[in-house]
Amino acid sequence: MYIIEITYKVAVEEIDHNMAAHMKFVDKYYHSGNFVASGRKEPRDGGLIFATAESQKEIEDIVAEDPFKVLDLADYRIIHFKATKKVKAFDAFESEWE
Fold first, then answer.
1. pLDDT tens digit string along 50-59?
2. Residue 10 carries which DSSP code?
3. Per-residue DSSP letter, 72
């Protein structure tokens, strides 16, 4: 699992202006099965995406498609995450990713 942390570099108004394109990108990767959860950070200075992929390179390639990245509106941090303690329901999701 990967956590993609997005931090805005521009005013929220410019983010909002490009939100429809960003959400189209997000929806694409929900449909592909790569994105598991996502949302805004509070305070609203960016967002988080929980994602699955075969490799960090795959995540980097996915992130490169995000309109926020293409337009240089945000910085991205990719964190490789291995859940060592979790609720049982997580096991069902995790087995799909392996």
1. 999 999 999 9
2. S
3. T
